[in-house]
Amino acid sequence: MYAWPASEVPALPGKGRDLRIHDTATDGLVTLAPGPVARIYVCGITPYDATHIGHAATYNAFDLVQRVWLDTKRQVHYVQNVTDVDDPLLERAARDAIDWVALAEKETALFREDMTALRMLPPRHYIGAVEAIPGIVPLVERLRDSGAAYELEGDIYFSVESDPDFGKVSGLDAAAMRLLSAERGGDPDRAGKKNPLDPMLWTAAREGEPSWDGGSLGRGRPGWHIECVAIALDHLGMGFDVQGGGSDLAFPHHEMGASHAQALTGEFPMAKAYVHAGMVALHGEKMSKSKGNLVFVSKLRRDGVDPAAIRLALLAHHYRADWEWTDQVLQDAVARLDRWRAAVSRPDGPPAEALVEEIRQALSNDLAAPAALAAVDRWAAFQQEHGGTDEGAPGVVSRAVDALLGVAL
What we know:
Shape: globular
Number of helices: 13
Strand content: 15-25%
Structural class: alpha/beta
Number of strands: 14
Number of domains: 2
Radius of gyration: 22 Å
CATH topology of the largest domain: Rossmann fold
């Protein structure tokens, strides 16, 4: 599977700072100091209805992570998946009487278009679940053969008790896990499971559903969590720098994925930091496909909204915060974009070196994008009121906002 084209990231004078970011597993800030190549895995979409503002907010957060690392003169090895076969996709395809493959391809193509418009840096590897199946099957077989997985009526389940570190990503107790498992794709009430929390690794073929040759597993399709584990281990290995996604993925997805990987390798942890973006609401409820209360990036673009304004609307909120999308949020972003573009369109301005360092400092401190935006606001306001004599300043500001915030002025 291919990703989307990369926008150019301007080079800035000097060097950025190492990133301090909130780690869900420790519930505190950790300083990440990767080697020459920083490694990040971000969970991708299930392509049955893309791309809403909640998606965009999540991928914007991890785009900022990449930009901070690039500013430290590191390379970034970014991997993202596409869950192009799963129950929600099959259910939507059946509801709309459309081929599930065609639906997945259509929505993935739209996602690529939206990511390109929003200037999100693409992953080096963009891998679909279907194309990952040849690598998934051997992992499930290894887990089964080692006793970390078991068969139940043809399905293969992972035993959470096989990982002594199970629970260290989310920090939840068993009761909370059981509730979330039921809400988020698990089957804690299925009879015959060793532990209600045990997740599916391989679903045996069902009539009317797609299936693949699973070798000794029989025909079927992979579970949700093992998909990401197989892709991450193949392209990044254990102990990569950041596992990212929305806060609703901390449990069960990232918890289960970590346990799968740790049981497979005997190593801990799977990732050095588990980083989660907050949820976006509309009309008082979390934006979600199940509720249908979605604001789509493609619809905003068709209505003539500048993608740079959409990105500024996202950046106006701290990535870990839960917030609500409103018309006023977008109007404020459009006005900010107009002010910034007017400021950098002048032939000269106040010196910009200190501003670049303010942006760097804000982003290195747990991706504090609102503080970075406030710093640019102050420079633009001073420019509007007083002007300046530095002929290079507007260009420096324009390049810094592009390189560090992903906004083209």
